[in-house]
Amino acid sequence: MAPESIPLQTLTTLLNYERLVSDPRYKSTSLHSSTIADQTLLLRLEGNALIRKRPASIQKINVHTFHYDTSTPDSTQDLTLETSTTLATCTIHPSCDLATRPLSSTQLEDIFYESRSHDGCYKALMLFQEFFSFCSSDQQLSIQIKNEEAILVDPFPRSIIEFKLTGPKLMSVQSLQLRNGGATYITGGENEGFHSTLGFPKPGTSVGQIVNLDDFFVVDMTRMQWGKRGMFGKPYFLGKGGDWQDAMDIICDDMEELGIGASWISENQHTELMRKCAKRAWNRWIDREKAG
Q1: Residue 227 region, left (φ>0) first, then alpha (ψ -120 to 50), else beta?
Q2: Beta-bridge partners for 160
Q3: Most buried of the four, 84, 114, 185, 267, by CB within 10 Å?
Q4: How much is the pLDDT for 187?
Q5: How many CA atoms are closer than 13 Å to the CA of 89, on its beta-carbon side?
Q6: CA–CA gap between residue 74 and residue 82 (Å, rounded)
Q7: End-to-end CA distance of the chain
Q8: What Rg, from alpha-carbon coordinates, does the chain have?
């Protein structure tokens, strides 16, 4: 008997959660300040060379600072655990700026997704790759966009779709003060950048024959690095390729498709962590009825 089809929306949510709460860059940190709460933070950073040299296309700058904090439940989970109960949101540092405390739950969640989605597209692609390695060859995905009828697709002839983005509209700066030293991560700091999404061919098409992006269902798990949610308020994009292209108009001035490539990513320094994340997502899927 063929296994039950996996809703792609459910799978994306499971994988995205595991990626976010396992991000080692933010281990033992919590939110100290943000321009979402206090725009004067940006005024204090006007002399910063990185901000002064921002692309001319930038319309908004978000700055989020995270400080070392061993007490936060937002710390990276124990990777030996089979599941995690960590919430996908920012916790507030005990000595945070006063303006940070009134941030709403939605704002804290948005900052969480935005900060941890920086430079994450290939990790997201790897998550799908590792998850599908647990699936049998007859596994299918169920894809439903809004109120349209669900469509079954084969998850294995998928493809990585690569783009060059020009003229970013948001510059997002994450400044971390860690126990030993610090780090800064910037999205939108250069006029040109690169991004990749995962495409699943619609039934009746094959990867080698596709010349129109709208022949794919596209998943963009790290869209929130530009501070914008996907369709229907989701913290990722899932939909038709053409709709994804249209939705990128609010992200950058121009976008060039570089190629529709292979589906496989070679092992690298992120493989072990993504494999563990994918295994936890697989366990959640298998145990979904027990979890209720």
Answers
A1: left
A2: 198
A3: 114
A4: 97
A5: 10
A6: 17
A7: 24
A8: 19
Over the stretch 45-55, which tens digit does the pLDDT of each residue have?
A: 877 888 889 99
pLDDT at 105: 97
What is the Cα–Cα distance from 213 to 241, expressed in whole angstroms? 5
Contact partners, residue 280, CB within 8 Å, separation at least 6: 18, 81, 82, 83, 84
Structure tokens that stand for 252 in this block:
């950058």
What strands lie across the sheet with 60-68, from one edge to the other?
Answer: 29-34, 60-68, 170-177, 182-187
pLDDT tens, 81-124? 545 678 899 999 999 999 999 999 999 999 999 999 999 999 99
* Contacts of 15 by beta carbon, 8 Å cutoff, 6+ apart: 124, 127, 128, 131, 221, 277, 278, 281
CA 139/CA 132 separation, integer angstroms: 9
Q: pLDDT band at 166, cuts 50/70/90?
A: very high
And the tokens for 216?
A: 């794919």
What is the H or E stretch that residue 245 is in?
A: helix 241-247
Distances (CA, A) of 275 to 6, 27, 28: 19, 19, 22
Tell me the two tokens of residue 207. Answer: 């990867």
pLDDT band at 74 (very low <50, low <70, confident <90, very high): very low
Q: State how far the Cα of 211 lies from the Cα of 199, in Å rounded to an integer.
A: 12
